[in-house]
Amino acid sequence: MRNIRLIKNEIGVLIMKTLAGGIVLLLVVMGIGLFLRSRGLVSSRSIGELLFATQWRPSRGEFAYFAFIVGTLEVTVYALIPAVPFALCTAIYLSEYANKRTLAFFKSIIDILASIPSVIFGLWGVLVIVPLVKQSEAFFTGGMGTGYSLLSAALVLAVMILPFIIHIILAVLQSISLSLREAALSLGATQWQTIKKVVLRRALPGIIAACGLGLARAFGETMAVMMVAGNIAQLPLSPFEPVYTLPALIANNYGEMFSIPLYDSALMFAAFILFVVVLFFNVISWLVLNRVKRRV
Amino acid sequence: MDSRKKTMLLKEKIIKNCMCFCAFFLAGLLVFIIVVILAKGLPALQLSMLVQTPKGGFYTGGEGGILNAIAGSLCIAVGATVIAFFIGIPIVLFINVHAKKHSILAGGIRFTFNVLWGIPSIVYGAFGFTCMVFLGLKASLLAGIMVIALIEIPILARAVDEVLQHVPAELSSAAAGLGATNGEVAWKVIIRQVTPGIITAVLLAFSRGIGDAAAVLFTAGFSDYLPESLLQPVATLPLAIFFQLGSPFPRVQNRAYASALVLTIMVLLISVAARYFSKKLSRHRIENI
Fold first, then answer.
1. Do A24 and B187 lie within an 8 Å CB cutoff?
2. Would you say residue A91 lies in a domain?
3. How many CA atoms lie within 13 A of B262 on its CB side?
4. CATH code where residue A69 lies
């Protein structure tokens, strides 16, 4: 009888180990798979040409990602500029000032906001943000743009990554031990002084890591950005001009992927760029966050 | 001295109120989004939309409904969640019960989950597409389920892992002391402790699966018919919203708003249910021994 139980246990461990190994392998396979699919394009052109030339004309066999990479970066940075301070303030309020019930209430708010699908955010952007941006463009510059622009995409994106950044900063702030705060308070520091000089200083690496994760998330966001960004491959000179991001490029053109030679590997290369950038920021940020957690 | 103290206290108050304002602004934002979707979707929503599949000329303003998309989304999300459950739960139990808590193995798997969690769904979609080309598959329900399952595994695993870390260590010690093997500790003792957490995690993963659009774009395709076979393409609700919104016909656009309302209500209901279960079922939990 005992043997059967032990054998069962052994088999269970074997299955679990296989599954765990599979998950770790998945990351590697994903990178290799995307790279192999894009090899057709990469082997025929130099990396410098692909990344820095500006002409995107698939029908003539000209593929260059510069406008898309810059567009994605611009949207991401524009989104982070309002989102990070706002998220930081909210997280500080929730962890330092709010009582337990308020905290629980806002935690559900954040969870619900995070669970809204990106298509819904996109629709909200089309209905609210785009007309708003259009009017403010007419008001400030007298331009007659459509409102589908870099600014619209950044604003929608900012709202989308807010719950995500708040969640991580809140976890970082809550992991800082209470005794540190008590020590500062007992020395006569006010609450804000404690937050500024003790809590935030201690949490700084974690907050930067949270921004890195937010950046990665914003970099890969597809549907909502695609719906409001205008999708014209150019280097936007003003925030009111349309922009085309890498994820939108992939999602918009998957249909005609096989109609033009090398087009499919060009789109897969775009996915590979995305994968590498997002992986880089994720790995760095989680290394920092794990370190922060261990130190406390 | 006194006036300095006053300005200091004033500063405290102003800062606190600013931060408080940010938090309530966030809540306002959520309400605003839901109100906009409600205001646009409710007038356009008709019962006939929910029980019909698209008829001829649906995308130019003809008759029909979005039942194909609702059914397709549910099929994909249910299938994916089941697969994610049977892959995610054993791994999480493994790193919490079998592996030593702070071993390199457990840490490495956790790290992988964290990184996988951050990979955007369009990359999953592109990867799924790569695999499909490799295997010679076409866009189908099966491919959609597989890709969404990959997206859901880290979501589910991270949520369950969070709960498992709060299970008191004495519990597994006690079970092990009675002669239980590691497997029995994991599957007969620990898992009962975290059932509410698992249900919440499953619902969370499910709602993420139902709302994802970028990955199913490549892998599940689109279809005007109800899903019948695993190897046929299926429609999904987010894509239905997206395609209808791109139409120049006001009637079709209105239907996009209504479809968005349906999706939002589904996601909100799942969210509320998750909260309810995690409260209701946690009554029988052993907090501390």
1. no
2. yes
3. 27
4. 1.10.3720.10
What is the DSSP track for A79-117?
HHHHHHHHHHHHHHIIIII--HHHHHHHHHHHHHHHHS-
In a domain, A220, yes or no: yes
Q: What is the ipTM of this complex?
A: 0.90
* DSSP designation for A176: S
Q: Which residues of B touch A162 (CB under 8 A)?
A: 26, 29
Q: Which residues of A touch B116 (CB under 8 A)?
A: 23, 26-27
pLDDT in tens, A194-218: 999 999 999 999 999 999 999 999 9
For residue A51, the enclosing domain spans: 38-295
Of A19, A109, A123, the CB nearest to B245: A123
Which of B98, B127, B219, B267 to probe by mutation at the A interface, max A CB count within 10 Å? B127
Q: Does A120 touch chain B (CB under 8 A)?
A: yes
CB contact under 8 A, A190 and B8: yes
The answer as to whether A284 is a domain residue is yes
Query: What pTM does this model have?
Result: 0.91
Number of structural domains (chain A) is 1
Greatest Cα pair distance, chain B, in angstroms, is: 81
Q: Which tokens belong to A293?
A: 């957690």
Instruction: Give a yes or no: residue A14 inside a domain.
Output: no
CA Rg, chain B, in Å?
24
Which of A5, A16, A215, A221 should we substitute to test contact with B (largest number of B Cβ atoms within 10 Å)? A16
The 10s digit of each residue's pLDDT in B41-99 is 998 888 888 888 877 777 777 777 788 889 999 999 999 999 999 999 999 988 888 87
Residue A73 exposed, middle or buried by CB count within 10 Å (0-12, 13-18, 19+):
middle
Residue B238 — φ and ψ, nearest 5°?
-60, -40
Name the residue in chain B with its Cα closest to that of A127: B36
Output the CA–CA distances (angstroms, integers) from residue B235 to B50, B63, B66, B271, in the order listed.
14, 17, 9, 23
